[in-house]
Amino acid sequence: MALETVLLAVGGKSDDQVERMATLAEDVAAPADATIVLGHVFTEDDYDDALERLEFDDDTEVTPDAVAGRNLVVRELRDRFEEQDIEIEHMGTIGNRAEGVIGFAEETDADMLAVGGRRRSPTGKAVFGSTAQEILLDAPCPVTFIKRESE
Among 26, 50, 117, 147, which is disulfide-ready with 132 (CB 3.0 to 4.6 Å)? Predict the structure, then answer.
């Protein structure tokens, strides 16, 4: 099986997680000449806040992909990977985070997915849910879970 697409689920993570996810993607994608796809899922509120904060021109067609492309983490990662001549794409959507990430993996036919998260007790998962757990169980490809270093 050739590795062609590595998907990174980005957004709202601590800096150490993003750095570790980026390093993982570089280490895997560069030797395989694979494309890295940055996927950002917005909640409705996050999307509205981003639209307001980013001040799009009236002439610009505003889509979740365009908003994701202006996200600071996405821009920084895109610049980092382009400096290393790694092919890079980004995607954005609005909705449930787990469903959005799984949708990105299906749409891009990802060979690997990296997702960040935090450790939760079984009770915490039952009460609050676990986006990462849902992705781990339902993703159509292998998933690497990057937990926060502070845990």
Answer: 117
